[in-house]
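Sequence decides. Our protein:
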Amino acid sequence: MMTRHLALTRLLQLCSANLPVGGFSFSQGLEQAVELGWVDSADSTYNWCHTYLRQAMLHSDLPLLAKQFDALQDNNSAAFSQNESWIRATRESSELLMADQAMGKAMLRLLTNLDELQHSQYYGELQQHSTLSFISSFALAACLFDMQQDDMLTGFTWAYIDNQIAAATKLVPLGQTQSQNLLFKLAAVIPHCVTDYQRGPVEELGQSLVGLSMASSWHEQQYSRLFRS
C-alpha cells in the first residue's frame, strides 16, 4: 500500500505544473491559432485539444513514449536511441522541436539533481545523456520513479491538457470556471488514449497536423507574443 501511494505522489510530482521543465513557456501553436481566430472560445479550445489527443497523442506521442519505457525496462539502448531519433523526426516545425528538446534537457537536469534517484538501476542511463526529447526524458523519469506504464501514459496526457488549458486561459481568454470545465471534459478522453493508442513498428508511427505545424511556424513572426518561439 505504501509503495502504491508513493508511486502516486511521484506521478503527481512529475505531472505538476510546478515541475521546472519550462512547459509553461510554450503554447504548442495555440498562441498563433488564437491570433488567427481558429481558437476563440471554450468550444474551439476543446476541439483544438481533442484533435491533438486523437490525431497526435494516439498515433505518435503515446506509442513512442510506451516504446521508450519498454526499451528502458529491457535495457535496450539501441532501441532507445532509434526511438529518440524517430521522436525528433515527428516534430514538424523548428518551434515544436525546440520546445521538445528544451523541456527534455530541463527534465534531465532536474533528474540528475534529485538525490534520491542515485541508487536507481536507471541512474546510469540518465548519466549517459545530456540531451533528450521530452518524451524520452519523461519515460526515463517514469522508470526512475518506479511507475507503471499506464500511469505514465495517463500523466503525460494530463500534462499536455493542463498546459494547453493554462495557455488558453490567458490567450482566448477563458474564465477559471470555463477552464475547469474543459479540464473535466478532456480528462474523460485520457482513458481512451491510454488504451487505444496505435501499436506497431516505430517506422509506422507519426503525425501530420498541418494546421498545428503552420501555426507553430507562423508564431515566430507574430507581432506580440506571450510564449516562446
